[in-house]
Amino acid sequence: MPPRDANPPDRALTRRDLLAGAAGVAGAAAIASLPALGAAQQASVPAAPPPVVPADPTKVVGTPTAAVGTRSPFVRPTRVPTGDIQGFSLTPHGDLTGTITPADLHFERHHAGVPLIDPARHTLTVHGKVARPMVFSMDDLRRFPQVTRTYFLECSGNGRAAFRDPKPDLTPQRVAGLLSNTEWTGVPLHALLEEVGMTGDATWMLAEGGDACMLTRSIPVAKAMDDALLVWAQNGEPLRPENGFPLRLLLPGWEGNSNVKWLRRLELGTAPWMTRWETSKYTDPLLGQKARQFSFDMDAKSMITSPCVPQAITKGWRPVSGLAWTGRGRITRVEVSVDGGSSWHDAALHEPVLSKAVTRFSWMWHWQGKSALLLSRATDETGYVQPTRTELTTARGPGTDYHFNQIVGWQVDPSGQLTYHGGR
Amino acid sequence: MRRIVMAMSAWLAACSGTGDGAATTHVSRTNGGPPPGQHFELGRAATPAEVAALDLDVNPAGAGLPAGRGSASDGAKVYARACASCHGPNGEGIAPLYPQLVGRDPAGETFDFAKDPRIARTIGNYWPYATTVFDYIRRAMPQTAPGSLSADDTYAVTAYLLAANKVIGAEAVLDSAALVNVKMPARDRFVRDDRRGGHEVR
Fold first, then answer.
1. CB distance from B49 to chain A under 8 Å?
2. Which of the four CATH numbers 3.90.420.10, 3.40.50.720, 3.30.830.10, 3.40.630.30 does domain A15-28+112-282 have?
3. Could you tell me if A412 and A367 are in contact, meaning their C-beta atoms sit under 8 angstroms apart?
């Protein structure tokens, strides 16, 4: 049987991808030592001359001010793009701390590339089951009441490769890089829908993007009237092109694909449209010869991001720290295990713990040089506890293909080297 | 505080104005705005022609399907010319980037995707609605020239793909009425999301 149509997140990086991302000597060196380095995160760091550091920086004047800031030459996180039009790139969680994803490291997943859109010409048309079909310019939209809120976005295919093929050298980026967390600014969608006056029978809304596949998803009106936003800014600046510039739909806690980017049209209707992205894709095969459709909510999930592959650790105290999130509200508890789940310890949840946003957790661990298996387990405000791999596949079957939120972690060998563990 | 009281009384005074009552008011008024029932008066009316130019979507009831028709045999020619370079001469796909479009293995009468992730999902064994095939091709394919097919060619290539998947006959001709009447093998396989949070893993 030929391999299943690879929905791009299935795709493992090829050596060609790595070579493409890693020019020159540093690249070649990284390729040569790939297994030990664990992943493309290392290999794709662009080759650059090593910074020339003064022996004593307090005795040499520094560089002047600059129009745009850049990262320290010692810090070069990258997204490891596949380089495909219908491709993805991954947030390097192992390189990040705190909760907010820098805009240029937000994950990408596109179905027809990133369009170039002039905001002065971009409009949003709202029509269908409304009293007054209307067109809004970006200027119009920015004059509505604004809100700024922090929410995570996660592709429901996040973790597919790690689920199917849990290799020891997978990094947090490879395991859960289709997750990012952002402070978004925009207008509550209900304000706009009140402006056009939905008719009483409107129950579904089609959201359409202005990219080359005019991506469409059907969204229940109940969500549109609840906490949905039309956003134009991320982390205080206009959206990045790859995040939907100049306008995207933001459905807090719902699978990434439904948060339609480059939003140009909303149509109100009485039934879902059954678009390609809610039938062929983004549906979850279930046991009993069925598939689950419109599985929008992202269930609770967590991942330890420090320590992680490709690190090796030394004996003594250190925080075991990571990220937890749920599309169903707030994270209420994260537990950490260092013995593969035989015993669990409550981790500290770092404030603020925001609804439908990423929460940072940590627990102080004293490593004594024995092999260990680090795991994390999140619980959300509905009482949902992050499942084991066995619980997930028992409920849905081994062919479950979206919403991979099983407990995973890192195996530590007595030398301190970490490897990925895909859960039990 | 005094400013809030003043704003409130201005708002109450303005409340005597009439609204069109078309929608319930949910906008939080804590940061000002028009009185309930009135609008921000931002944006402009969309003309029917403007809406028609954008509104390309097709739903399972066939709303939005254009006039036109095409046969599976004509569709084979469209496919060879515009699609085969990426999806393979017979719709077998080119892994990993270009999806398989044809094939109902095993036979498409079972739906065991949850048991075995290696079973390819195709139009023939997985897509619940034929209208989706038309809608998707019209909006997105061929990938390097979306929107370049005529309505007739889109009906034809849709017919070709459905015939190649043995959903309709090799001689079939599709127009809007015929497309809506195509019953896909996977039509009744889809269920709504029953996850609700709480203790159960679903």
1. no
2. 3.90.420.10
3. yes
Mean pLDDT of B36-55: 94
- The shortest C-alpha distance from B156 to chain A (Å) reads 19
State pLDDT tens for residues A37-95: 333 334 455 567 888 899 999 999 999 999 999 999 999 999 989 888 899 999 999 99
Concatenated DSSP letters for B11-27?
HHHHTTS-----S---S
Chain A residue numbers touching B97 (CB-CB < 8 A): 6, 8, 11, 84, 86
Collapsed DSSP state (helix, strand, coil) of residue A291: strand
Distances (CA, A) of A270 to A221, A278, A280, B48, B63: 10, 16, 22, 20, 12
Name the maximum alpha-carbon separation found in chain B: 78
The SS3 assignment for A26 reads helix
Smallest CA–CA distance from A395 into chain B, residue: B202
Chain A touched by B136 (CB under 8 Å): yes
In 3D, which of B167, B199, B173, B197 has the Cα closest to residue B185? B167
What mean pLDDT is predicted for residues A407-420? 98
Q: Provide the pLDDT for residue A45.
A: 54
A6 → chain B, closest CA residue? B96
Q: Can you give the residue ranges of every domain in chain A? A: 15-28+112-282, 301-421
Nearest CA in chain B to A191: B27
- Neighbouring residues of B111: CB distance < 8 A, sequence distance ≥ 6: A285, A289, A290, A291, B125, B186, B189
Domain A301-421 CATH assignment equals 2.60.40.650: yes
DSSP A154-175: E-TTTTHHHHHS--TT--HHHH
Only one residue has tokens 């092109």, namely: A241
- B155 φ/ψ angles, rounded to the nearest 5 degrees: -60, -45
DSSP B197: S
Distance separating alpha carbons of residues A74 and B40, to the nearest angstrom? 50
